[in-house]
Amino acid sequence: MNCQEFWNTAPQPGAEAEVHLASHLAECPACATKWEHQRALAAGLRLVAEEWRSVEAPARVEAGLTAAFRAQKGFERRPARSSWWMPVLAWASAAAAMVVVSLFLVRGWQPTAEPRVPLAAPQRTGPVTLEFAAQEQDGGAPADMEDDSSGLGNDFIRLPNAARIEPNEDVNLVRVEVPRSTLIALGLTVSEDRTSDSVLADVVLGSDGMARAVRVVDEGGSLE
Amino acid sequence: MELMNESQMAPDASQNDDDLFVRLRGGDEQAFVTLYRRREGAIYRFAMHMSGSATAAEDITQEVFLTLLRGDCGYDPKRGTLSGYLFGIARKLVLRNLERSRADVSLEADGDEVALPELAVHENALADLTRREGIETLRRAVLALPRRYREVVILCDLEELDYADAAVVVGCPIGTVRSRMHRARALLLEKLHQDRNPKLEVGPLKPMRCAI
């Protein structure tokens, strides 16, 4: 075996050289010296690896990803099996939406003249004009962003029960695929025959990594 | 007593990556969290070593795992391991980040590796690597390697992938990984030797008035 063959077949320096490689090292001082230096370097690199082994991404990355996961999967866990109360819940939600719409029509809606400050534009844009069937859900906070001082554009819909975004809060914007059926929970009208389809949505994550608001973007046009 | 079916059981640490992947695609959040916690450290460190920036590493780690959530993430167990797939995505994002920031400092320009001269190996370059400053010096030397050598050193030496897995991540034959590793180590030894024996540098001469 010559030197070139040795280095072409040499194992990683951390490992022991095999017998036929060791015989070359025994008869070639230059390669033996070089091999020892490489082994010393490998040992040094192992120290670097050990020193860095405990380095991990900040916890906020996991929080943000978990929030994005939930947003994509419909903001709540799917039931493991079909339940008898699902149709009841659907009808109750529809009834609640009707009540809210009625209140909305009776009281009227006064849009504010607040200037719209959009978030940093994501890569793909094209917000769809949406019909809001209801802006309140479960008696919680208003779902629209009209009184929000966060600087979000008014095409973002605040999630039910989500914390308010503070003016100087550090938020992240992630784009995920959301089942159309999820949009019903946000008060958007979605045709029943397409509820299983997915739609792109921008989700605003607060500094705690929790989803705060969502904006639907769909290059395909209307949600209807 | 009702038995829980497989999809209802919480994932444990013994489950392999592919099982966790199938479960997370089915909406199992715990599977996603388990997989994330198992792999995020290596991805974050890889991005950190490659980019030299904690901020970039954080963004890249987030983007890597967001890719897993997308319907068309493109992972195919027949083509490689999930770990390799994640490293592959991280590598692409790192390269994009480096191109964008133009922060790729190197010992020399990324040229044809065959054209590089054989480097001398110096005896005392590693004498004090057991010390903490030695470790930091070595890490800085890794960071200063040209990108193509840096990535194989990080994958094989720091994250302990074998050459075959590193070849899949980098997208080149295993022989190329081997030769790059060989060259990278020679460059590291040379760099360490230079750090220990800096040449005397004389700054530009300025005329001075002095009283004699």
Helix and strand sequence of chain A: HHHHHEEHEE
How much of the sequence lies in strands of chain B comes to under 5%
- Determine the structural class of chain A based on helices, strands and strand pairing: alpha+beta
Rg from Cα of chain B: 22 Å
Q: Tell me the Rg of chain A in angstroms.
A: 29 Å
In DSSP terms, counting alpha (H) and pi (I) runs of 4 or more, how many helices of chain B? 8
Low-confidence stretches of chain A: 76-80, 109-149, 219-224
Mind telling me the CATH class of the largest domain in chain B? Answer: Mainly Alpha
Structure notes:
The complex is a heterodimer of chains A (224) and B (212). Chain A has 224 residues and is of the alpha+beta class. A four-stranded antiparallel beta sheet of chain A has the order 1-4-3-2. Chain B starts with 16 loop residues before the first helix and ends in a 16-residue tail after the last helix. Chain B is built from eight helices and no strands. In chain B, 58% of the residues lie in helices and 0% in strands. By secondary structure, chain B is mostly helical. Chains A and B meet through α3, α4 and β2 of A and α2, α3, α5, α6 and α8 of B.
Task: Using brief descriptors, characterize the structure shown.
heterodimer, A: 224 residues, alpha+beta, 2 domains, 4-stranded antiparallel sheet, elongated, disordered C terminus, B: 212 residues, mainly alpha, Rna Polymerase Sigma Factor, Chain: A, Arc Repressor Mutant, subunit A, 8 helices, disordered N terminus
